[in-house]
Amino acid sequence: MPRDSILRVTAERAPHCRPDRERAVAMRAVVGHRAWCPVGSDRGGPAGGRRAARDVCHPVRATRRHHVSCPDAVRTRRDRARQDITRRASGDASDVTTAKPTVKTLKSSDGMPGGGAPAESVMVEEVSTGGAQTRRWTRSPTGGFESLPAVRAKPAEASSAQRSAGALTSWDPRTSPRLRRVFLPAGYPESVSRDYAPFIRWHLGSLVFRNVLEVLTSQSLLVALGMGSAPGALPLTAATKWVLKDGLGSLATLAAGSLGGQKYDEDPKRWWAATNALEDVARAIELLTPAFPAFFLPLAASATFVRSAALTGRGSLMNGTFMQHLSRNENLGDVRAKLEVQGRWLALVALPVGIGIFRSVSSAFDADAGDGAYRYAATLGAYGAVIFGHTFCCWKAAHVLRFDTLNRARVCVLTRAFVDAERGCSSGDAARDAAADAAVADAVADLSSALVALPGVERAGAAEGVYCARFAADAPTLGASLPECARDWDDLEALLRLGEKGAGRESARRRYMLGWDAARDAPSALLDADAAPRDVLAAALAATKAAVDSKRETSEGNRNRGNRGTRRLEPAVAESAYAYADARFVKFEESARAAGWRVDFVQMGTAPKYRLRSLAGAADA
Which residues pair with 610 in a beta bridge? Predict the structure, then answer.
């Protein structure tokens, strides 16, 4: 009912009221009508008009009739209505409540055991594998379970620069729960390795360039296929060439899988960069096919051969070594699936980019595009930039990886750091060792403690690089073959008897043997077929000790270095190295574990092993 109608009815129902009293009663009727009557009753409806006329002088009684279930709430609303009437009467209408006031729900203690005070709601947080809150659970009014959304931490006050980048931040999977579930493994970052984020950044960049290259090479092959065939025989000739060009790819896959399997695992960073570089070479050959359409088949077949070999190594590393390293909760499938999702999204982005680059290059060869120098410069510039971007991103992705597993090169670095630290070598000695002591320069020995500070995973991984030399010039040959250990059979038997001296009982038998690699002029270690990771570490420690002692004797002038092929491992040096490894192996193992290395496995690659027990029996006979 309109306000004027309410005032007129009020004057008719209360003629005995004074003017000021009449004004107060009318205002009370207006406020009470707006607060308690049903929606639409103040719009002049029949029901609303009758109810307002009937209850205008008794707002509180009418209110109690409509809301008898909560007396406390009625009293609160009545007090608020009186305050509004007072403000109206005084002429201050700036803070009068005209909407339905908020009612605070009061919990009743009738249904609680013992009739005590109402208990607070208990929230149980549901978290993901990594500890991120996904939702909350509480008790429903009926005693069941009620699901509530997760509470996200409110970000701090952002600066102007951060507010300008807010649109990009909302698309960051690390901050958006929905994008996190789509693009990142469950439990990120606790469920992946520490180098997952830097590796993924560079790897996704390489995928963008790789997808662009795939678009460019596909269009180049199709254009060259049409240019090199006669118009009448185009379908049959094109189909034949397209099938024949993939024939050599199977042979390349067989060769790469049979010859390079274990090498991929031993040095994954170098092989990752090398295989991606080979793939770029294959893409460059395919991009040249439109310039030589008559040689489509040999060019396409050669490119397929190189690319198949490269993809074999690349796929083996990504699906095997890298997935095992990046996952930390046995979640290889989840990490690989999220990587596929990221790659598919980038493929959609790269598709229009590749088409645009190809059309730009094709337009440079139009009749009115200019001279030939401009055409070839535009082509080389566009294609070269994409190939260089892919190669660089692949190299950076390999460079940021930090493997905590041990291989032959890392074991030799750690053993050299351990031996030099116990010797207390000065900074001058370390400087003279050049590249051999590059990773040892930061190793500080604490001789008073039980352990030695060895290079950590981060420091050793940065010094390892991608294409850097893995072994120093005087590093021992770990996992040597028979020719790399002894000059002849008699020398082999003598070295075997020297290794058995002081070995103790059968259970403590050494499962390695020291020798001398004449080709490298350095000590070597021959491994037994039953050698465990502990035996490999002990062999590396003994061989490194022998290398250091041999180098010291040579520097002191105790031996002539004239003919490298006539040198051999001195018995005194070998006995000292064996005793050193037996006494300090446990200390070295614990020092390596304290530095963050996994000592339960050593990747030996293609290193051979021999059954030294049968060889020992032949030597005794």
Answer: 528
